[in-house]
Design a protein that fits this description.
The chain is of the alpha+beta class. The chain is 29% helix and 38% strand.
């Protein structure tokens, strides 16, 4: 994981992001940070959903200097989602 992202963000930290539509802000908790090849990603959960059994998961790519970018490429999205699912499966196996 790049040192730059760990200097900018911490797992468990709450960040506020402006929504594309309407410009309102929402708070998200950083649940995971991981790398795929030379890119870093954040897994975010809306704070208002974190106590629910089911919640929305959002992925953002870290572009450096505190800049987060949505994932618009289907191939990249699939790769990030598969990596996240693998991380979750490993965590569940550790709990057993």
């Amino acid at each position: 994981m790049s040192q730059d992202i760990t200097e900018q963000f911490d797992v468990g930290e709450v960040i506020s992001l402006a929504e594309e539509e309407g410009g309102t802000t929402r708070d998200f908790r950083i649940m995971y940070i991981f790398d795929i090849q030379d890119r870093s990603y954040l897994v975010l959960v809306p704070v208002e959903q974190e106590d629910q059994e089911e919640y929305d998961v959002h992925f953002l790519r870290y572009e450096g200097d505190g800049v987060l970018q949505g994932i618009e490429n289907d191939e990249e999205w699939q790769q990030v989602e598969e990596t996240f699912e693998t991380l979750i499966a490993e965590l569940e196996n550790e709990e057993l």
